[in-house]
Design brief:
alpha/beta; 18% strand; two-stranded antiparallel sheet; six-stranded parallel β-sheet; binds adenosine-5'-triphosphate
């Protein structure tokens, strides 16, 4: 019952509202230390295949493990993400976790985003290797109610999940940020593994040369 006067009763019906113009936004959370072509292919393939309005790259402020040494100041990671997505109208950056600082649980971040954008459906995109870890995510049962998870199948990982998930098949490359950092330390080329601007930035700023980065 939504309104009542002396002579008129208006009742809600089940079919009254159709959300035809809800926005559909993909989110890729990560450390992006550094961003690489694997991330970009993932984002592009899911965005296109699901017909999303945008895919946002959401760098975290701090690595999930406090003792993780493999991180550099967030401003560098943010800059490299900006360089990576430049010129692609499907891509954008979501800086909410960087602005909040410290460790953010995905559930808390997504709650904030959903509250700020009630007209949006969120698709949380993860690599197939991450799907098996979903049960360990903070308040995962609540999170799966809030966002639609999208997993991109990767070689060697089964398309299985304890949670509702949309599986997307896409050609992926086996690149990881960890591997890129190791290559830089040992003087190997990262050409074609990261966008050219990111490669230039890393070399100009002298990133990942020290053992504890
Ligand atoms: P690291 O090697 O330091 O763990 P990473 O390369 O996995 O880093 P993250 O920033 O941790 O990068 O990853 C963000 C998201 O991108 C995760 O969901 C991860 O599964 C996905 N991802 C990372 N590399 C690839 C890749 N080569 N292909 C597809 N998805 C990827």
């Amino acid at each position: 019952l939504i309104a009542q006067t002396d002579y008129l009763v208006i009742e809600e019906t089940e079919t009254q509202i159709e959300f035809t113009n809800r926005k559909r936004i993909g989110i890729i959370g990560g450390t992006f230390n550094p961003p690489h072509l694997g991330h970009l292919i993932l984002a592009q393939q899911v965005g296109e295949q699901l017909g999303l309005d945008k895919v946002y790259f959401m760098p975290d402020a701090e690595p999930p493990h406090v003792d993780e040494k493999a991180s550099i100041p967030a401003k560098h990671r943010e800059m490299m993400v900006r360089q990576s997505i430049m010129g692609n109208p499907l891509f954008d950056i979501e800086t909410i976790e960087l602005e909040r600082g410290g460790k953010s649980f995905t559930i808390d971040t997504m709650k904030l985003l959903v509250a700020m954008h009630p007209d949006t459906d969120y698709y949380f995109i993860i690599g197939g290797d991450m799907v098996a870890y979903l049960p360990k995510w903070e308040r995962i049962d609540e999170l799966v109610q809030l966002v639609q998870f999208v997993g991109v199948a990767r070689h060697g990982y089964a398309k299985e999940s304890l949670y509702p998930i949309i599986w997307v098949d896409a050609p992926l490359v086996d690149i990881s940020s960890t591997e890129i950092r190791k290559m830089i330390k040992t003087g190997r080329s990262i050409q074609y593994l990261v966008p050219d601007d990111v490669k230039e930035y890393i070399s100009k700023e002298g990133l990942y040369l020290d053992e504890d980065e």
